[in-house]
Amino acid sequence: MSTLDRFAMAPMLVAIAADLRAPLAAVVSAAGAYFLAYGLSQPVWGVVSDRFGRVRTMRLTLLLAGLLSMAAAVAGSVAVLAVTRGLAGGFFGAAYPSALIYLGDTVPAGTRQRALARLMVGVALGTALASAAAGSVADLSSWRLVFLATGAGAVVLSGVLRSLPEPVVGRPRTSPAAALRAIARSGPTLVVLGLAFVEGAVLVGVLTLVPTAAHAGGASLSLAGLATAVYGLAVLVGSAVVARLSLTWHPWRLIAAGGAAAVLACSLMAVTQEAWMAAAVAFLLGLAWTALHSSLQTWATEVLPGARALVVACFAGSLFAGSSVAAVSLADLVDAGRFTVIFAGAAVLATSLTVAAAVARSRWTRPACHRADPETSGRGRTG
């Protein structure tokens, strides 16, 4: 549901701007406010979920996020839209780190990459549905209906999660202050967080602009949304492939393969922004997400076991903070329709990210204490 809400706005940017009689750059910045709040709230929710429980945190924040998303549906100005969407993003931000930490608490390290790849299936479904439906609904009816739907869905899901058990962890959790100090002293952890920030700008930031670029290339909002929905299909296919490859491939090879797909996607989108190219680029970005992102995400759950909850939350925060910075920084270029410049720059950034991430991961080895961790050796349980 969090993914569904997060990706629903991108195909509707043009429709929202037209309905509110606002510049496209202002609406893109409002979307950036969502991603910024979504990203900055992640470490907070990591600490909260550590204190009050993963499931309890997810349930409360989904309820509040749903109500705020429905409030955004009746916004009469970009300012009100930015505030309500920003607050909704802040509460929806709890879902991602809580789910990742839940997997980290309950799935052994040896099978965690496969579990995270399967989690990507849910991401794929949310992304595909949001991309295909949001653009069509905005084109044929009103963008406001989409936010009403995601808000209502979040409220319902908050009740459904009542049956999900809280994880019971074998080792005591560290205090937030101690965890922050551990992160600050851990060079590999800081590297992972820095890579996540750049990845957010490249993968999430570029995907957000694909439907707008396709519309500028002549596609209707519905067609632009459908082209972007191919991303979801790619994540479904890529998740199955990555789950198998992770059994035999070192993570740096998955990072290199995913990064190469991202570089190719950005380079192709710089050539033309027609709908068929947008579909091809969305497919490549989906493959990049399953290989590159899932590998970095798995690394985040392993790099500092004693502060896993906060590391994972900071990882997610860095990812979406990067996407928010990209959205705000590129708003004027988007308004001017300079998509060739945008995607060419993204290709250069993706190349740097791929090289840095692959080299860093190839040189890192799992700490000995992690190998002995009850959670990662399969003795973690839920109760």
UniProtKB/TrEMBL annotation:
It is found in: Cell membrane. Its main location: membrane. GO terms for molecular function: transmembrane transporter activity. The keyword Chloroplast does not apply. The chain crosses the membrane at residues 20-40, 60-81, 87-104, 116-137, 143-164, 190-210, 222-242, 254-271, 277-296, 308-330, 336-360. One of its GO terms (cellular component) is plasma membrane. It holds the Pfam family MFS_1. Keywords: Cell membrane, Membrane, Transmembrane, Transmembrane helix. It comes from the Bacteria. It is a multi-pass membrane protein. Residues 1-363 form the Major facilitator superfamily (MFS) profile domain. This is Predicted arabinose efflux permease, MFS family. It comes from Geodermatophilus ruber.
